[in-house]
Amino acid sequence: MNALAARRRHPAAIFLLLLLGLILTGGAYAALAPKPAIAAEASAGQVKEGQELFKTNCATCHGANALGTNVGPNLAGVGAAAVDFQMGTGRMPMAEPGVQAPRGKEVQFSEEQIAAIGAFVASLAPGPAVPAEEYTTGAGGDPGKGGEIFRTNCSMCHNSAGAGGALTRGKYAPKLTGVEGKHIYEALLTGPQSMPVFNDDNISPESKNDLIAYLKAMEAEGNPGGMALGSLGPVPEGLVAWVFGLGVLVGAAYWLGQKGA
User: Fold this and answer.
1) 154 marked among binding-site residues
2) % of the chain at pLDDT higher than 90
3) Is 158 annotated for ligand binding?
4) Does 209 have pLDDT greater than 80?
5) Where does heme c 2 bind (predicted)?
6) CATH topology of domain 44-124
7) Any binding-site annotation on 58?
8) Domain boundaries in the chain?
9) Does 218 show up as a binding residue in the annotation?
């Protein structure tokens, strides 16, 4: 009996039990963990084309090897998603140095050229990839869940209506109307300017699609209640009430006084 008990307590049995538990846990995580939404991988030819385009158009600020200068930052590790966001929204190349790159009126490169430059930058070091289209249109997403995510994580900077807002040191959170779903996803992935990063572990691809669905639904609804006043909340609303409301009351009081006289 004592010998049987001793065999049951053998250290090797405990080690094997722990090893089996680790294997099962790792296998379950690999099977159930959220998968990143990644588009197709780049070819060697695309990387080479992107390198030539980069040297011609971007190296002045970021250096020939994209490792940065005193004008532009190091791009190793930013990933193709950051390139697609910055160049696809016309923020890059910047017209002039400033505290923040504004959204451009026109995109200066074709989608193929942007993809090639992104492939070159992605080849320097691992970074966020351009997301797959199935998660960037809002199609099939739940606007209700997306609204909860937006109000929890985004509204304090971008305003509850996505109208944007001022930040410190001359920076600002841009308005989110008229922005492609892909670029919203990429901004979440890469955290441009003062924005924090929300990778696919923080907010899953499905939840990002819900958030995009919410923003698109809000944009489509417009302002059924009347003038939006910039969607900036109680400050402009109070200003309108004081200036116009009080003006009407003063005018009415003056008219009644003149009529009585």
Assistant:
1) yes
2) 56
3) yes
4) yes
5) 154, 157-158
6) Cytochrome Bc1 Complex; Chain D, domain 2 (1.10.760)
7) yes
8) 44-124, 133-220
9) no
